[in-house]
Prior knowledge:
- By secondary structure, this protein is an alpha/beta fold.
- The protein is built from 11 helices and 9 strands.
- β5, α6 (about 175-185) and β6 (about 190) form a beta-alpha-beta unit.
- It binds N-carbamoyl-L-aspartate.
- N-carbamoyl-L-aspartate (NCD) binds near residues 134, 173, 227 and 267.
Amino acid sequence: MNAPSTLQLRHLLGLEELSAEQITALLDMAAQMKAVNQRRIKKLPTLRGVTVLTFFVENSTRTKMSFELAAKRLSADTMGFSASTSSLSKGETLLDTARNLEAMAPDIVVIRHSSSGAPRFLSERIGCGIVNAGDGAHEHPTQGLLDLYTMRDKLGDLRGRKVAIIGDIAHSRVARSNLHGLHKLGADVHVAGPATMLPPGVHALGCTVHARVEPAIDGADVVMMLRIQRERQGNDLIPHAHEYHRFFGLDAARLQLAQPHALVMHPGPMNRGVEIAPEVADGAQSVILEQVENGVAVRMAVLYAVAATRGLESQGA
Ligand code: NCD
């Protein structure tokens, strides 16, 4: 497998930094990886001898497993490391921890951190490739890419497609990565949520902002629902979960406003009965589990692109 020359990717810090061509090249490569994942033996020798360290300083289920699986399917050696079992809880600074990790000579570090900018901070100070697996409320680029992949796979070219992103936009790194990516690929993005969850200046990211969900969902090709990020909010910004559901949740009646072929998406973890009704989460239009499946292929493409840019892929593979 060869990485196209447009795809020089020493790190993946955010979709804000990528061009439309780089995003498209990554999605094309992910399609090849998905074909590998559908074989009986889901493995390529491409990253033999490459060490990938997953450094998760914030909880994760899907993303960490997905990256570990992606690395293993490319034959890389992986090692996982999470906050609760590390010396970070003993007061060590991020930079000291990172220097110690670097001393063990990994090739790529996949990092999730509660501080926005932590992956960039590391990329400027240590020599290995850094892949952002979610930093605070800033970006979650591989989630953005897997969402774009899923939309493109189902709908084709995203230019002019109406995508509604509903919920806690202000605290969501998933929303921010999607906004950057969708804007670059020419989609027509609409966001809606309670006023307390719409960041000032969000329209500067190239989207239309609505106070109510109905105009956002009206005629949409994609309806993406987001969880309320209580862990990132200083105060409770909504009165009650059931009230939130009544005004901002996606149920079958609201989904009727969208195109009949509209995709229902959610990055997980879902709060059923809050942002999304079970009948919709499990309904015929939901592609939520396909998002998870595509996530492995997208992360394989990202790890491969970073390794290839650094000249690490194994010859002849
Ligand atoms: C998201 C995250 O961690 O940002 N989850 C994920 O990676 N699939 C979204 C969330 O926590 O709500």
